[in-house]
């Protein structure tokens, strides 16, 4: 016998929106599953900072801790770095529409390899985000060619 959960998918989205995440942790909604993980450490933050510094801020906005609206995938991921055209997007809000994003950066750790290279990559592809750059281990140059329009 197979049990079927017939609750609307919006139930999990509302639950996620009201979730109180403990200090030192972050949570993402990935394909209808709430995934909680430890917050980033110093090495992780330095990698993000170095990637951010390679992106010219005269043309691009770089956001951290920004949830992305991919509700068609029942997902609200929070990439490590989000790059979009300067001053694009809404004035405020918790979710950034995926169609505004030029590039995402994910710092991959040994605990996030499957999630970052598998689940999140396929979510970003389904959301038609043009560039997803996983950084594994150490800082590599952000793919500048996608930022020179």
Name of the level-1 CATH class: Alpha Beta
CATH architectural grouping: Alpha-Beta Complex
CATH topology label: tt1808, chain A
N-to-C series of helices and strands: HEEHEEEEEHE
CATH H-tier superfamily: tt1808, chain A
Output the number of helix runs: 3
The percent range for strand residues is 25-35%
Tell me the count of domains. 1
Based on DSSP secondary structure assignment, what is the total number of beta strands? 8
Low confidence ranges: 138-149
- Rounded to the nearest angstrom, the radius of gyration is 16 Å
Strand order of the largest sheet: 3-5-7-8
Helix content: 10-25%
Structural class, from secondary structure content? alpha/beta
Characterise this structure.
With 149 residues, this protein is an alpha/beta fold. It has one domain (40-147): tt1808, chain A (Alpha-Beta Complex). 23% of the residues lie in helices and 27% in strands. The chain has three helices and eight strands, in the order H-E-E-H-E-E-E-E-E-H-E. The protein has helices at residues 10-17, 42-53, 113-126, and strands spanning 25-30, 33-38, 60-63, 67-69, 81-85, 95-97, 101-108, 132-136. The strands form three sheets. It has a four-stranded mixed sheet, sandwiched between helices. The chain has a two-stranded antiparallel sheet with strand order 1-2. The protein has a two-stranded parallel sheet with strand order 4-6.
